[in-house]
Design brief:
The structure is a single chain. This protein is mainly α. Among the domains are: 93 residues, no CATH class; 103 residues. Helices cover 65% and strands 1% of the residues. It has a two-stranded antiparallel ribbon. A hairpin with a 2-residue loop joins β1 and β2. α8 crosses α11 and α15 crosses α16. It starts with a helix and ends in a 10-residue tail after the last helix.
């Protein structure tokens, strides 16, 4: 396999990452901290980036499917690896496992953290965590619009016509699609930043939370997460940003080019909004009846935390692990749902749940009428057998990866409940787990180093849609 095109792209990305490190360096200098924590990593990252670019540059970069799969993995690993350098250089008492865990959690928009004392951590480090999640958020959107449909990963080929081909009608070149996504992404972040400031949040905190909310990442500037801010408006804005980040970005491009007059919410977005609303109402009623709080307060608690966990953001306004066994089971299950394909969210994605339900209905009808002819449909269109198979295989491998990661974490010495919760939050890229140790009131600083490495791998497996990582384990992949 020719690795030069892969190293060239990785080098270009590392050059961009080194420039991004200058932003928190300037922020640290402005607030009176040392800028060395980012200047040294920026120089190291730029050195490797420029070396790869100069050594591997070619007149024209053409890659086959195997190279694209490998490049996808290399990009995430390289950004997580070099992105961990500021955590190592800064005076945070973090080893390699902790730094890589934190960086991988950021770039995969997971939001799990090993850091404590965020309220007194330097502004540059807090901003760098947000930058990693913000980059990871737009990166997964572009990947979902271009790479995954082309590679037929997990049923994403369904969106070739609805996503990429449709966008070519709206925008003639793929570069313009990426530019449009970037403009919309920056625009939503800016709106969130201004809205959070209007609620009374400080400028720096508003910027960080706007970046981590629209990317559905969940890193915060306080150990209490958004529960540190008592203003109701903060949670309303955060919920809005999380929902906006969970909707397909092609929807925004369509509205931008065609105007709101031709507004049409696709089946996936409708299903996501209906499911989210139903879960919020259900949990609000349960909290109201069981926790001795007023219904408005129960609705506020449920709306924020259910939205945060289902979208994989991972903010917390309360310790929902203390709500009882049913609440723990409820939040563990909704971790797997996720948002819409082509958004910044994670998990299995709502469209896959729709396809699986359609396939299950078709099978049940076939059992009742063996001679009948039935087809699975999605959004009024027939689902091809290849798509249904791809989604089914994705579901199997997703659950299998979760089960294997749970057993491996248990083998490192974690208790069963901690292993299950940690595996779920890693594979689903959610952030906080369930329970006292890794729940919203705790973090992952106390788990052992082997478990941290395993969780970092699990984060990447979940973020890259399972197939893109597991395919590297096939010996045939490496054969000429």
């Amino acid at each position: 396999m020719d690795l030069k095109p892969i190293l060239f792209v990785c080098g270009a990305l590392l050059c961009a990452l080194s420039l991004a490190m200058l932003v928190p360096a300037a922020v640290d200098w402005y607030f009176g901290h040392t800028a060395r924590d980012f200047l040294v990593p920026a120089v190291v990252t730029a050195f490797f980036g420029i070396t790869f670019v100069l050594a591997c540059r070619q007149p024209r970069v053409n890659m086959n499917l195997r190279q694209i799969f490998l490049m996808t993995n290399c990009l995430w690993i390289s950004v997580a690896g070099f992105g961990s350098l500021p955590f190592l250089v800064a005076d945070l008492d973090m080893g390699l496992a902790d730094a890589f865990f934190e960086s991988m959690s950021g770039i995969t928009t997971t939001g799990s953290t090993v850091m404590v004392g965020l309220d007194v951590t330097s502004h540059g480090i807090l901003l760098w965590r947000a930058i990693l999640q913000w980059i990871g958020g737009i990166g997964i959107v572009l990947m979902a619009l271009s790479v995954l449909p082309m590679l037929n990963v997990g049923g994403m080929q369904m969106f070739k016509a609805e996503g990429f081909e449709q966008s070519e009608k709206l925008l003639p070149r793929a570069g313009e699609i990426a530019a449009s996504v970037a403009i919309i992404y920056v625009g939503l972040t800016t709106v969130g930043f201004v809205a959070l400031q209007l609620t009374g949040m400080g400028s720096f905190d508003a910027l960080v939370h706007a970046m981590t909310a629209i990317s559905t990442g969940g890193f915060s500037t306080s150990d209490e997460s958004l529960g540190h801010w008592a203003e109701p408006g903060v949670q309303v804005v955060a919920i809005s940003l999380m929902v906006l980040g969970s909707l397909p970005f092609m929807l925004y491009i369509s509205y931008w080019k065609n105007g709101l007059g031709g507004m049409r919410i696709d089946s996936q977005s409708r299903a996501f909004l209906v499911l989210l609303t139903s879960l919020v109402v259900f949990m609000s009623l349960w909290v109201w009846f069981n926790l001795d709080v007023s219904f408005p307060h129960a609705l506020s608690l449920s709306a924020f935390n259910v939205t945060s966990i289902m979208t994989g953001t991972g903010f917390a306004s309360a310790d929902y692990s203390a709500w009882g066994p049913f609440a723990n089971s409820f939040f563990l299950v909704i971790m797997f749902f996720g948002g819409c394909a082509g958004s910044t969210t994670c998990g299995m994605k709502v469209f896959r749940l729709q396809v699986l339900m359609a396939g299950a209905r078709m099978q049940l009808k076939q059992l009742l009428e063996p001679r009948g002819v039935f087809v699975a449909s999605y959004d009024g269109r027939r689902v091809n057998a290849s798509v249904l198979q791809s989604v089914t295989y994705f579901f199997f491998l997703f659950i299998l990866s979760f089960a294997v990661l749970t057993m491996l974490l248990g083998a490192t010495g974690l208790e069963f409940s901690v292993a299950v919760s940690s595996a779920a939050t890693a594979i689903c890229n959610v952030g906080p787990g369930i329970g006292d140790v890794v729940g919203p009131a705790g973090n992952f600083s106390t788990i052992n180093e082997p478990a941290k490495w395993l969780m970092a791998i699990g984060m990447m497996v979940g973020r890259l849609e399972v197939f893109s990582v597991l395919i590297l384990l096939l010996p045939r992949f490496w054969q000429p």
